[in-house]
């Protein structure tokens, strides 16, 4: 199953070979977008991080003050 990843900081280096991400995903990450990857290439592990889904918690207020 593919997971979403985003760039940690700065820009991805172009060499070696777009970090084995492919040109299109490399460009998207450098433009601040997130991409779906089945496998994270070893060369890219230091530069990208998984996007965690945010779960909002509802706080119930029973009228107590």
Q: What report would you give on this structure?
A:
The protein has one domain (3-50). 17% of the residues are buried. Strands 2-1-3 form a 3-stranded antiparallel beta sheet, covered by helices on one side. The protein has 65 residues and is of the alpha+beta class. It contains 1 helix and 3 strands, in the order E-H-E-E.
Spell out the blueprint of helices and strands.
Elements lengths: L2 E5 L15 H8 L4 E3 L10 E3 L15
Offer a few descriptive terms.
single chain, 65 residues, alpha+beta, three-stranded antiparallel sheet, 17% strand, elongated
How would you summarize this macromolecular structure in one to three sentences?
This protein is an alpha+beta fold. The protein has 1 helix and 3 strands, in the order E-H-E-E.
Structural domain count: 1
Decide which structural class fits the backbone.
alpha+beta
- Count the helices. How many? 1
Measured as a percent range, the helix fraction is 10-25%
The 3D shape can be described as elongated
End-to-end C-alpha gap: 46 Å
Numbering strands along the chain, what is their spatial order in the largest sheet? 2-1-3
Poorly predicted parts: none
């Amino acid at each position: 199953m593919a997971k979403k990843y985003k760039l940690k900081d700065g820009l991805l280096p172009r060499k070696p070979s777009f970090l084995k991400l492919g040109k299109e995903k490399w460009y998207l990450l450098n433009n601040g977008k997130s991409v779906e990857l089945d496998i994270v290439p070893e060369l890219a592990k230091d530069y990208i991080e998984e996007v965690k889904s945010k779960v909002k918690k509802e706080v119930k207020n029973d009228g107590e003050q």
